[in-house]
Amino acid sequence: MSLLNSEEQSAIADAIGRAELRTAGELVVATVPKSDSYEKERFIAALFWTFGMAVFANWLLPDLSTLYLVLLQVPLLLVSYGLAGLPFILRPMAGGRCDAMARQRAMRMFAERGVHQTRDRSGLLIMLSELEHQVVILGDAGIHEKVGDPGWQGYVERIVTGLKAGKAGEAVVGVLDDLGEILATHFPARGDDTNELGNEVVVES
């Protein structure tokens, strides 16, 4: 299931359209369920849980043979690995890696979606990563020169707050409306502008 429902995606596409009427900038909004698989964290957690449960089983059933105890650890490891992937468990385990992984995923998407290939180097990506509760805003060279990372921070915090409150769509629309004014100042619309990147929300699984 997407982080943004169809109504929210439609509202965001409309907000992008409104913003791009005033600016030569190109806006892209994208969502991903998570920015990394975090397999290392899941495997380490599964090993610890399996070992703990094996020790408990040995204490509870001291007559259980060593062979059965070893064989029991196989399904325990698989179940533990699956449980470690649940968002409310995985998020705190990932901890400090969440921010770095979300930024790396956004940078890959920036290239994959051609945000860096607009005519005026004025592409802007807003990526929401659901599992990490992270938002990354990346601007191409032209926009970054005018605004830079510190200039995006307030908008990032607004969307993160909306994401955590289950109102990501509403927060993104508000930010897009405000960004339209800022981008119009630095990159006003030109007569020969074309919609280079499209307005639809990019939803990746």
Structural summary, described in words:
With 205 residues, this protein is of the alpha/beta class. It has 2 domains: 6-36 and 97-203, Diaminopimelate Epimerase, Chain A, domain 1, CATH 3.10.310; 39-84, no CATH class. 60% of the residues lie in helices and 11% in strands. It contains 8 helices and 4 strands, in the order αβααααββαααβ. It has helices spanning 6-22, 39-60, 66-84, 87-94, 97-112, 141-146, 148-164, 168-186, and strands spanning 26-32, 123-129, 134-139, 202-203. The protein has a 4-stranded mixed sheet, with helices on both faces. A hairpin with a 4-residue loop joins strand 2 (123-129) and strand 3. Helix 1 (6-22) packs parallel to helix 8, helix 2 packs antiparallel against helix 3 and helix 7 (148-164) packs antiparallel against helix 8. The mean pLDDT is 88.
Following the backbone from N to C, one meets helices and strands in this order, namely HEHHHHEEHHHE
Number of domains: 2
Q: Tell me, rounded to a whole number, the average pLDDT.
A: 88
Task: Give the low-confidence spans.
Answer: none
Q: How many E-type strands?
A: 4
Strand order of the largest sheet: 3-2-1-4
Task: Round the Cα radius of gyration to an integer and report it.
Answer: 22 Å
Outline the biggest β-sheet. 4 strands, mixed
Q: Which percent bin holds the helix content?
A: 55-70%
How much β-strand is present in the residues?
5-15%
Taken from the alpha-carbon principal axes, the silhouette is: elongated
As for the CATH topology of the largest domain, it is: Diaminopimelate Epimerase, Chain A, domain 1
Q: Distance N terminus to C terminus? A: 9 Å
Secondary-structure-derived class: alpha/beta
CATH architecture of the largest domain: Roll
